[in-house]
Specification:
Layout (H helix, E strand, L loop, with lengths): L3 H14 L17 H7 L11 H15 L4 H18 L6 H13 L5 H4 L1 H6 L4 H19 L5 H16 L5 H18 L8 E3 L2 E3 L1 E5 L2 E8 L7 H12 L6 E6 L5 H7 L7 E4 L1 H8 L5 H15 L21
Parallel strand pairs: 4-5, 5-6
Antiparallel strand pairs: 1-2, 3-4
Helix pairs in contact: 1-3, 1-5, 9-10, 11-12
Length: 327
């Protein structure tokens, strides 16, 4: 049962979503999309009743939050995606002001969806298709120039970091290597534009650092032990994250990975709030096999969509996770 604050927010959300899509329509209309069609995609059509549009939208949202809370994010993203297309076809584009209002209401319900806070998405709402395509082309060209050839400054910096990481493997003083690893990660994140924060202390806790990706803050924990880590290390990090806010996420760098038992234990009983990156993953990033931002975005997506804390690098885009080319 929703509390009074949540119930009020649900009514506000129903009003904010009202103009995005029709509530219903004829099944004979080819390609017609409405709230009930979207709800059915996510197995939520049983929450759709017959009646006035706004109360029915509120009922769909309320029942989803009360009975299938795990479907709330994909439902909202689908409604917005279809709604943006619908409103554009109707000659009444969805605006950035409407998006800001929508995000504010969703925050009142205790959620924050990165896709709806993406600055590129927000900017695109006020653009014509041609302008949007031109801006994206310019952005890609700038990124390619930044990557440049193997002789560019950035490539040389990545190569230096790769050599440093390899050298750290030979240090016999492992505590010293662990401390150096924190500085190494800080340098890598800074080079990748992730606005890292150095290790800091809050009451009773030492945190190895943090960084920002797509306007979201991630806490960082880094361990370089001789063997794969046991579950107790992961439990401790999860407690640190849960002690912050509902929006806090984490990245656990376990240079030699974690045990199979730890992988199973950390995803049993509670939703994972962080993902694990290994030394092999870092070496692949440093070898320019993938940009750090793209790697982290894909890992977070796998965490959000499939609850995967650990993913072998060669399976990052395999099977159902393959890049949607041409999308």
């Amino acid at each position: 049962m929703l509390n009074f604050k949540e119930a009020t927010a649900v009514d506000e959300l129903a009003e904010a979503l009202y103009t995005l899509l029709p509530w219903s329509g004829s099944g004979t209309w080819k390609g017609h999309v409405n709230f009930q069609v979207v709800a059915k995609r996510h197995g939520l059509d049983r929450f759709c009743g017959q009646g006035s549009k706004r109360p029915m939208i509120a009922q769909l949202i309320r029942c989803t939050l009360e009975q299938r809370r795990d479907r709330f994010e994909p439902l909202m993203l689908d409604i917005v995606r279809e709604g943006v297309n619908y409103r554009r076809k109707e000659g009444n584009p969805f605006t950035s002001d409407e998006l800001d209002r929508l995000n504010g209401i969703i925050l009142q319900l205790g959620f924050k969806f990165p896709d709806l806070w993406d600055e590129d998405f927000r900017t695109s709402l006020g653009e014509r298709a041609g302008d949007r395509a031109r801006r994206r082309t310019e952005q890609v060209r700038a990124e390619e120039e930044l990557r440049g050839t193997p002789t560019t400054k950035r490539a040389m910096q990545l190569a230096d970091l790769q050599q440093e990481l390899l050298a750290l493997q030979t240090w016999t003083d492992r505590p010293a290597a662990g401390l150096r690893l924190e500085k190494f990660l800080n340098t890598l994140f800074c080079l990748s534009g992730l606005q890292p924060r150095s290790p800091f202390r809050v009451t009773g806790e030492q945190i190895d650092g943090s960084f920002e990706l797509d306007f979201e803050t991630y806490l960082l924990e880094a361990k370089w032990e001789k063997d794969a880590l046991q579950a107790k290390e992961l439990y401790a990090f999860r407690e640190v994250i849960e002690g912050k806010s509902a929006f806090t996420r984490g990245l656990f760098v376990a240079m030699n990975g974690i045990t199979v038992q730890a992988r199973e234990a950390i995803t049993t009983g509670k939703q994972p709030t962080f993902f694990v990156v290994t030394g092999h993953d870092l070496m692949m990033v440093l070898s320019a096999a993938i940009g750090l931002k793209e790697f982290l975005r894909q890992r977070f997506r796998l965490l959000a969509e499939e609850g995967l804390v650990c993913v072998p690098f060669n399976e990052l885009f395999s099977g159902s996770r393959a890049r949607a080319l041409g999308a």
